[in-house]
Design a protein that fits this description.
mainly alpha, two-stranded antiparallel sheet, disordered C terminus
Length: 1718
């Protein structure tokens, strides 16, 4: 508002009614002369007038009321003289009062109000004189309108409205008379606008219509009687919502309203007629007995119909107003008919009519139906069917239940009131009984007790609200309820009264026939209810739960239905606290249960009826507290107590009464509650700990000494030593400690107790509890004393170690030096020794001082499990201590023996050949089979599984070895004599020299049949021949292993033990372990390798050490799992795999087993990397695994040159291996290697397929190629398919087909193929006729690969390449290939090879109409156009008969690369050809006008366009000849390239016109042709002329400019200003024009304004000024101002001053002139 103008502020105050503030604004801003000031005055007057008008109406109403209350004697005419005089006086007073009001509002004295002036609207509204709104504004009278506004918005009485309307009419008449018009002649506006006079007349007519419709006397009499039409105000009149405000409409509605009042009065009188005092049904029966005419003539019937008709007339046509009266009358008639039909025995379809159906309204519908059911005993099914038939929403089951049963009403207010009362009553009773049971225990009280209410004193007797006059429940009614709802029937049976008083009904047709139905007795109802409740188990359970707390003593043993049917307390059971008697019933039952100490009943009552009560917890706790105090098993009632503190105090108070288990349970429950206070919880915990001690003591003996814990507690107090001794005898030391916390024990007894307890725990190996015991001793001196005394008892090693460790850790500074040495000696060795099984500790006890040697000996003897525990122990003990070695040395030891687990037990040698390897393996397998006693139990060697099949000729029977075949079989073997002295180690037979056992000469050394050196002779023997041991001189280990021959030789005189042979047999059997041997860690039961504290002996043992089961992956992995660094272990496993792979070529190696070992190692390495989170090494493991798979494939295929892992690590190496396999024609291996290593198998399959193809096996080649060749995703792509398919096709096309044997003995087929091959020689198919190519096998094979794996372009190219152009075209059509395929595959080869005519002939032969080739021909044209092959394009267009495009091509030939019009003149023949083509097109178009449409691919053009283009060609020919002639004569020169022709855009055509105008000898020479160009192409002639003139200026041909202006003016189509425009355009280059020529050009301008502009352009300001001042004044002023502005821009001060002086001097003269003209 701060930035608003004052007028808006004043208007805002007026709108809000703040007139005082408005006057302040008026005074502050001096706005008395503004229009808003008049508005303020008018609004103030208007408010005062409204108040005075209200006072006048109030006086009129008071006079009317006073006049109506006085009783005046009337004359014979019905009107008193005094009343007439008073009415006239009152009317006069009203008239003068209203006149004063209007005069005050419309007063013109003082300051006039602008809005009340007669010409206000005309003067303030800018309206055209001829506008329709002006006529309406001329008829407006502001005073009359203000008066009319008062009458329409502020008057409430008819009299005041009438007076104001009359005043408005007078004001309007006077206003119109002053303007020479009359109100009678104001008609409706021609545009349909109702003006103010018309509206005023219409309202006045309607308001006075009722008075003018009849005579004055009659209207007055009607008015006096009060029955006349109402006199309403205009506001009420406008609110009537009549369809239209016309006299007819008002009269019609008034008449209908009067008729409606009369009909209603008649209907009211008909309904008030005296009726006989009979029930409604009897009255209906009497009416039904009447005939139909009598019923229709009933007054009620007649008046109702009249009322419906009257209401129908008042309803507008087409409206959807609801007919409430008709609906109500129909309902009453239908209900009466249904009731009468139910009483009648006639069929239901017989129509029943009654005269007065409103008789039914004397009773409710439910009462009528119940009277029919129970008094008249109408069948419920019949009555329900009739009601349903008539769609009456009256429920018969609801009527039966409401009549026969007690009403069960839900009342929320009653429930809330009774809830609070029940809480108070039950709380008072519970507190009263709890105070008697619990003396000093405080209880919580209800939240809102009422102390003034005493339930025992104020309780009122309750009574059932049943009405004894309720109808009886009959069997038919019950059966009907069952049919509708069995649940409803159940509730009805429960609520039915057992003592029903049946009133005697009136006679019915049933009673007359003796069918009166007897009501059901109470027993019958109970039985029915019982049967119904069986179908509703949930309802029965609910009723039983609600009835149990309320049942009386007399109801014991009775059935539920018998007890509930007709029971006085049933409403409480069903409704709960909604029942009016629930409060008394529940209070009485609760008090009875408390008195009888029936705690369960009291709790059940609160649980069932207190679900919706929030504060019952305190009442329940009080009841439970009484139960706890009074019941023998009171502990059971503690669990439901909500108050945790109360529960805990009760438990502590009464715990001495209950059994031990119950006490423990309730105490634990109380402690677990978080709401218990801390102090109370401590008391509970102390009590619980005490009882737990008693429980443990009672459980020591069976049967216990004490009968219960109360007796034990008494004994502990009276005789504690007996109890302690009994506990110690049972060795329950912890229990004794707990018991000692309850009762005091002396110090010496306590030390003795701790010592016995500590030794007991250590003997049981329970070190954790022993440590806890020592930590529990609070006195450190006592702890040290107990520990040293225990150590002095000479305990076991584990116990001593524990005690020494504890002393070192906790009492290090208090121990002596001797004790320190003892503890340090036992610290590590005993700790590791303790981890070993007890029966094996003796074998390792000598190494207890060197744990690293102990670990090494464990690894040598394959005790991996024990070594695992030992390593873990070392890791724990070595933290922060130095014991001579570190964990790095332990890891190094583990790595070394893990490598030994994979050592080869044979020398590294290469395989001889695949055949020799297979032969040796088969021979070895046969020997094993021959040696085995039971073939089924012989373990299968893995070499047999992985080695190839034996070659033919080797039978399955035993054959002698090579050694045996070298000696005659009949010669007995010579006895072996060992050397005199055992040979030294370096003299033993080397491993590489022998591959067969030197004793038996049969066993081959393999991975599982190891080499053994006999310590006596030094030979290489197998395990079967070295089962004995004996003492050998000079050997370190004695007895040492020797061969059987040395043993036999040295023990000739000693008889052989009978057990030797079975042992040898067993050992021989054990030398061939199963394959699963490498999967698990092998176990050795005896210690074979023993280390010593001497390092020299240990070195000898290490040099001879080997694992019997090596190589064993599981052993290696198990050892490396003990290593700390999983990443290093993983890399070690990978290195081991690389080392193992080098032995795959060894003949003694089971290569398949070795690859499995490598896989297992690599998988374990992968798991180690996963464990260490080394994700980057997982890919390395996967790579190695894939490489091992490759090696496995090569081994399984008996490939000779198996590489090692290190040789195929890189992808390039794998690729080389694959290529080597393919070069060696191991195609299947190449595919498998590619698959395993992730290489693309396409190349391998392709090489395999090409090999089959070269071998002539076409079927196999197809199968192989199907693995690597795939059809292209898009057959129409512009390439020849994959390179592989191209290679196949190229081979088939270039290679002579070899001979292939097809079937068994098909010699003739083979000869025929040989003949065909010799005849064909190759697929250079030029010499073979086209028809025979189709039958060629290789031709068909090429097509197979092309059709299945290549693109359409490749197929088409193949056909074209072999001169099968027709097949190529047909394939193109069949596949619907895109035009690009046609271009690439057919069209380009055709025109490049000069076969375009052949292609055209084939196209035309296949489709003479060329319709199917349309898109291809269009694409070919586009291709040629893009390539700029226009001659071929022109030839193709002629073939297509596309005359329009051919003409366009000829035009292109004409204009292309032309540098002068001389060259264009030489190419005019092309324009002639183009014209001929267009002529032919016109002829063809005219011939085919009545036929079908032409082909789509030929360009179409209308005849008019063709004619226009032909004219363009003719005109271009003329232009070309003209310019050719001009160039020849030298008058025209080429200045721009490319040459402009008429075939370009409009700009180029304008250039042509300019060249033609300027190319001749003069302008007139070529102006005619240029003018034709401008006219034909509708070019901008003025611009063209300007361009030509500019060029003439550049050429300094100023005379030609004048000639051009002459030609333009003489052309007949130029405007007057075109010449000036041309000259102005020329003058833009005024600097190069000589002054004389320049002045001449300016003088040639006709318009003076243009001359001024020309002088301004040429900077001749004075000349421009002189011409400007000569013009008419207004024009001169504008022109001088332009000159002044130009002078200002150019800085010419003189001209600027001249112009300014002229403008100053000419202005007064202009003003004077304008005044005179005005």
């Amino acid at each position: 508002m701060m930035f608003s103008p004052p007028e808006s502020l004043l208007a805002s105050c007026i709108l809000r009614g703040n007139f005082a503030e408005a006057h302040q604004v008026l005074f502050t801003f001096n706005l008395k002369s503004s229009p808003s000031s008049g508005e303020l005055m008018f609004m103030e007057r208007y408010q005062e007038v409204i108040q005075e008008l209200a006072q006048v109406e109030h006086k009129i109403e008071n006079q009317n009321s006073d006049g109506g209350s006085n009783t005046i004697r009337r004359t014979g005419s019905g009107r008193s003289t005094l009343q007439a005089i008073g009415s006239a006086a009152a009317a006069g007073m009203v008239f003068y009062s209203i006149s004063d009001v209007t005069d005050k509002l419309l007063s013109t004295s003082g300051d006039p109000i602008p809005t009340l002036q007669e010409d206000f609207w005309i003067s303030t509204t800018l309206v055209e004189p001829t506008a329709p709104l002006r006529e309406v504004l001329e008829d407006l009278s502001p005073p009359a309108m203000a008066t009319f506004d008062l009458a329409c918005s502020q008057c409430q009485l008819w009299k005041t409205c009438k007076q104001l309307l009359e005043t408005a009419e007078r004001r309007l008449n006077s206003s119109l008379e002053r303007r020479g018009r009359r109100i009678d002649h104001v008609l409706l506006n021609a545009d349909g606008i109702r003006g103010f006079p018309v509206v005023l007349q219409q309202i006045s007519k309607i308001l006075n219509y009722l008075l003018m419709s009849a005579s004055q006397t009659k209207s007055e009499s009607v008015e006096e009687k009060g029955g006349g039409p109402p006199r309403c105000s205009i506001i009420e009149l406008l609110q009537m919502c009549w369809p239209s405000l016309t006299e007819d409409c008002v009269a019609s509605h008034t008449t209908l309203s009067q008729q409606q009042d009369q009909v209603l009065q008649s209907l009211r009188e008909a309904l008030e007629l005296p009726e006989p005092r009979t029930p409604p049904l009897s009255s209906l029966v009497e009416q039904a007995a009447q005939k139909a005419p009598e019923a229709e003539a009933h007054p009620v019937q007649i008046q109702t119909q009249l009322l419906q008709k009257n209401l129908g007339k008042q309803t507008p046509a087409g409206s959807r107003q609801m007919d409430y009266l008709g609906t109500f009358f129909s309902y009453c008639s239908t209900l009466a008919a249904v009731l009468l039909q139910s009483l009648s025995s006639e069929p239901d379809h017989v129509e029943v009519k009654v005269g007065n159906p409103f008789v039914l309204l004397q009773q409710s519908s439910s009462q009528l139906v119940s009277h029919l059911l129970f008094e008249r005993q109408v069948p419920p099914e019949r009555l329900a069917a009739l009601l349903a038939q008539e769609n009456l929403s009256l429920s018969v089951p609801q009527v039966i239940v409401s009549c026969c049963c007690e009403p069960l009403a839900l009342c929320s207010s009653r429930q809330s009131q009774q809830t609070s009362s029940l809480l108070t009553r039950l709380g008072t009773l519970a507190q009263l009984h709890a105070s008697h049971c619990l003396d000093d225990l405080p209880l919580s009280t209800p939240s809102s007790p009422r102390p003034t209410e005493n339930p025992t004193l104020e309780r009122k007797p309750y009574s059932s609200p049943r009405d004894s006059s309720l109808p009886a429940l009959t069997s038919s009614a019950l059966a009907f309820l069952k049919s509708r709802s069995k649940l409803l029937a159940t509730v009805a049976c429960l609520g039915a009264s057992p003592r029903l008083k049946v009133s005697k009904p009136s006679l019915s047709w049933k009673e007359l026939r003796g069918r009166r139905e007897v009501p059901l007795a109470a027993e019958q109802v109970a039985r029915e209810c019982e049967r119904l409740l069986e179908q509703f188990p949930l309802l029965e359970a609910f009723l039983l739960a609600a009835w149990e707390p309320l049942r009386e003593s007399s109801q014991q043993g009775q059935n539920l239905a018998v007890n509930l049917c007709g029971w006085a307390r049933l409403s409480t059971v069903l409704l709960g606290l909604h029942s009016p008697i629930a409060l008394d019933v529940l209070t009485e039952a609760f008090e009875e249960s408390l008195v009888a100490r029936d705690w369960s009943r009291a709790l059940q009552l609160t649980e069932v009826y207190g679900r919706d009560v929030d504060d019952l917890s305190s009442i329940k706790d009080a009841v439970l507290s009484c139960a706890v105090a009074c019941d023998k098993e009171g502990w059971q009632y503690l669990f439901p107590v909500k108050d945790a503190s109360l529960r805990s105090r009760l438990a502590l108070q009464f715990v001495d009464r209950w059994p031990l288990e119950s006490c423990l349970e309730i105490l634990a429950y109380c402690i677990s509650d978080t709401a218990v206070q801390e102090g109370l919880k401590c008391e509970l915990q102390r009590k619980l700990a005490e009882l737990q001690v008693y429980q443990k003591i009672l459980g020591l003996q069976s049967p216990p000494v004490w009968c219960d814990w109360q007796t034990l507690r008494s004994c502990c107090v009276e005789d504690p030593s007996t109890v302690m001794n009994m506990i110690l005898e049972a060795q329950e030391y912890e229990l004794c400690e707990e018991w000692g916390c309850l009762y005091p024990i002396p110090r010496e007894h306590l030390i003795n107790l701790h010592q016995k307890h500590l030794l007991h725990l250590l003997e049981r190996r329970d070190h954790d509890k022993a440590l806890q015991l020592l930590q529990r001793i609070p006195d450190p001196t006592m702890c040290l004393e107990v520990t040293e005394q225990s150590l002095d008892q000479h305990t076991s090693l584990a116990t001593s170690h524990f005690l020494a460790n504890y002393l070192t850790t906790h009492f290090y500074g208090q121990l002596t030096a001797v004790r320190h040495r003892e503890i340090q000696a036992l610290y590590v060795g005993s700790k590791i020794l303790l981890t070993l099984p007890e029966q094996h500790r003796a074998s390792y006890s000598h190494l207890s001082s060197n744990p690293l040697l102990m670990l090494e000996q464990l690894l040598m003897n394959m005790k991996v499990d024990w070594a695992t525990v030992a390593v873990q122990t070392l890791q724990q003990l070595m933290v922060g201590q130095e014991i001579g070695f570190t964990m790095d040395e332990v890891d190094s030891l583990l790595s070394r023996y893990a490598e030994k687990a994979l050592d080869f037990p044979y020398p590294q040698r290469e395989k001889r050949s695949a055949f020799s390897l297979s032969t040796d393996s088969v021979i070895h397998l046969q020997e094993i089979v021959h040696q085995a006693a039971d073939p089924e139990t012989l373990p299968r060697s893995p070499s047999a599984e992985f080695s190839p099949a034996a070659p033919p000729g080797i039978s399955g029977v035993h054959s002698p070895s090579l050694r045996e075949r070298s000696f005659p079989p009949t010669q007995p073997p010579q006895e072996f004599v060992p050397p005199a002295t055992p040979p030294a180690r370096h003299q033993w037979v080397p491993d590489e020299t022998e591959s067969i056992c030197m004793v038996c000469c049969r066993e081959h050394f393999t991975m599982f049949n190891r080499r053994h050196h006999c310590r006596r002779c030094g030979r290489l023997v197998c395990s079967s021949c070295s089962t004995k041991k004996m003492v050998v001189e000079g050997c370190r280990e004695n007895p040492a292993r020797v061969c059987d021959q040395c043993y036999s030789y040295c023990n000739k005189d000693v008889p052989e033990e009978p057990s030797g042979k079975p042992e040898a047999l067993d050992s021989s059997k054990s030398e061939s372990p199963p394959y699963s041997f490498v999967v698990r860690v092998p176990k050795a039961d005896e210690v074979e390798w023993i280390l010593d504290l001497k390092e020299e002996e240990n070195e000898l043992v290490r040099s001879e050490f080997y694992y019997e089961q090596a190589p064993s992956a599981s052993l290696c992995i198990a050892i490396l799992n003990l290593h700390r660094d999983s990443i290093a272990c993983g890399h070690q496993l990978i290195e081991h795999c690389c080392r193992l792979s080098k032995g795959l070529t060894n003949p003694e190696v089971d290569a398949g087993l070795l690859t499995d070992i490598m896989k297992q190692l690599l998988f374990s390495a992968k798991m180690m990397f996963v464990k260490a989170g080394q994700s980057q090494d997982l890919a390395l493991c996967d790579s190695y695994i894939s490489k091992v798979d490759v090696l496995n494939i090569l081994v399984a295929a008996a490939y000779r040159h198996v590489p090692s892992l290190s040789q195929i690590l890189q992808p390039a190496a794998v690729t080389r291996l694959r290529n080597q396999l393919l070069e060696a024609e191991y195609y299947q291996l190449g595919v498998e290697v590619s698959t395993k290593t992730g290489l693309d198998t396409t190349g391998a399959w392709h090489a395999w397929g090409m090999a089959c193809l070269k071998a002539g096996n076409l079927t196999a080649a197809r199968e192989k190629f199907s693995r690597c060749l795939k059809p292209p995703f898009d057959l129409n792509q512009l390439n020849h398919g994959s390179r592989l398919v191209q290679d196949v096709v190229e081979y088939l096309e270039s290679t002579v087909r070899p001979l292939v044997s097809l079937q068994d003995d098909d010699y003739f087929a083979t000869l025929r193929e040989l003949e065909a091959t010799l005849r064909t020689q190759s697929l250079s198919l030029a010499v073979i006729p086209e028809g025979k190519i189709m039958n060629n096998t290789y031709y068909q094979e090429c097509l197979f690969y092309l059709h299945n794996y290549s693109t359409n372009l490749a197929i088409i190219s193949f056909y074209v390449r072999h001169s099968c152009l027709r097949e190529a075209l047909l394939h193109l059509l069949n596949k619907e290939s895109p035009p690009e395929v046609f271009i690439e595959g057919i069209f380009q080869p055709s025109y490049k090879s000069g076969k375009l005519h052949t292609l055209e002939n084939l196209l035309e032969s296949i489709d003479p109409t060329l319709e199917s080739w349309g898109k291809y021909l269009i694409a070919a044209c586009q291709h040629l156009q893009k390539k700029n092959y226009y001659h071929i394009l022109y030839e193709l267009q002629q073939f297509m008969k596309d005359q329009v495009r051919a003409a366009m091509t000829c035009i292109r030939f004409f204009s292309h690369k032309a540098k002068s019009y001389t060259e264009l003149g030489e190419k005019l023949s092309w324009l002639l050809k183009a014209k001929d083509h267009l002529k032919i097109y016109l002829q063809e178009t005219s011939r085919s006008s009545g036929r079908k449409k032409t082909t789509f691919f030929r360009k179409k053009m209308t005849a008019a366009d063709v004619s226009r283009h032909m004219n363009t060609l003719q005109l271009q020919m003329e232009v070309t000849r003209f310019l050719h002639r001009c160039e020849s004569s030298g008058t025209s020169q080429i200045t721009t390239l490319p040459l402009p022709t008429l075939f370009g855009n409009n700009h180029m055509k304008m250039d042509v016109a300019c060249k033609v105008m300027l190319g001749g000898k003069n302008v007139e020479d070529g102006f005619g042709i240029a003018f034709r160009v401008l006219q034909d192409f509708q070019l901008d002639a003025a611009m063209t002329y300007c361009r030509a003139a500019r060029q003439l200026v550049e050429k300094e041909k100023y005379s030609e400019i004048r000639q051009l202006l002459k030609c333009v003016s003489e052309s007949g189509v130029a405007a007057k200003s075109d010449g000036d425009t041309i000259l102005l355009n020329c003058l833009e280059a005024f600097k190069r024009i000589p002054p004389q020529e320049l002045e001449g050009l300016i003088q040639a301008i006709h318009n003076d304004d243009n001359k001024v502009r020309a002088y301004l352009i040429c900077c001749k300001l004075r000349s421009a000024y002189l011409i400007a001042v000569k013009q008419e004044h207004s024009r001169a002023t504008a022109l001088v101002q332009q000159v002044q502005q130009a002078a200002k821009s150019s800085g010419d001060a003189v001209v600027q001053d001249i112009c300014a002086q002229w403008l100053l001097t000419s202005h007064p003269r202009g003003a004077h002139g304008s005044g005179s003209r005005k």
